[in-house]
Amino acid sequence: MPKFNIKHITKYTYESLVRDSVNHIILYPKEHEHQQVMKHDLQISGNPKVDTFVDYYGNQIGFFTYSERHRQLEIYSELTVVTSARELPAETMFSEFQWEELQALRYHVPYIDYLKWEAFDGLRELKEVITASKESEAAPYHVALNFCTYVYKHFKYIQGVTTAQTQLNEIWQLKAGVCQDFAHILCQMLRMANIPAKYVSGYICPNKNGMRGEGATHAWVEAYIPSFGWLGLDPTNNCIANETYVILAYGRSFNDCSPVKGVYKGPSDHKLTVQVIVSYDDGTVEQHEPVEEMPVTEPEVPVVFKGNSYRRNLQLMQQIQQQQ
């Protein structure tokens, strides 16, 4: 049963003084039979009062307002959790019955929300991929694993080419992104195959294993497998998410699970950096440099995000191909 101490530091830096920063945070770790929360401390600039409630998806949500003028806002979350491994689904010869059970879940709460998939320009192409990846007579468990492997192999892990607002159309066109983009694509594939899928936000604690997604919050997927329950799948690393993953939130997409988002009064230019430091029982500490992320907190006038070189080059290549 591994034990992790996790420090999550979120820092906003503004170009000049701002005020009335109203924020929505999901930084409270889940408590369940495979994840026991030993301690959780939360410190916020200005020591505002934090009101909490539990949302529809079972996430604990915090709200606070920092009214005083400020040029920085820091949210420091430190938690200690103990996790345990969950046994994997057993092999079964009755895949037909499992698919029938999944078909019946289409009209049952809470599975309905986790079965809704989005229409986008690449839908026909993705349907062909799903048909090819979904072997005949294969059980839902194996189909889910195949989909996870497909995303891992066909999408490049490149930081900075997408933002929290990037839609499926762009992700599918770029065939690149980070963990949240990989999770969004896998959720779409599973839902289109009639397998309920949750978007999951949290931390990855690989202890020197060098997995992608370290140093910040991580995103993966949970797929519902009949006779087993919810199975964690990480398409960014092509593995099953088990005892080295710490869960913060569940939802349909990133929008339901964003660790910090909000609004403020002041100039539009600001910077967001996030740092996650993980300590282990053996004294090992994994500490990365703070990662600069695209802010989800907005000023009164929304920020217009500019393109990037990777996307411009991709568009240029597509234009050349169309002209040939």
From TrEMBL:
Segments forming domain Transglutaminase-like: 171-237
Superkingdom per UniProt: Bacteria
Pfam families noted in UniProt: Bact_transglu_N, Transglut_core
Listed SUPFAM superfamilies: Cysteine proteinases (SSF54001)
Xref: Gene3D superfamilies: 3.10.620.30
InterPro entries according to UniProt: Bac_transglu_N, Papain-like_cys_pep_sf, Transglutaminase-like
SMART domains hit by this protein: TGc
Name this protein carries in UniProt: Transglutaminase family protein
Organism: Pedobacter psychroterrae
Upper classification of the organism: Bacteria, Pseudomonadati, Bacteroidota, Sphingobacteriia, Sphingobacteriales
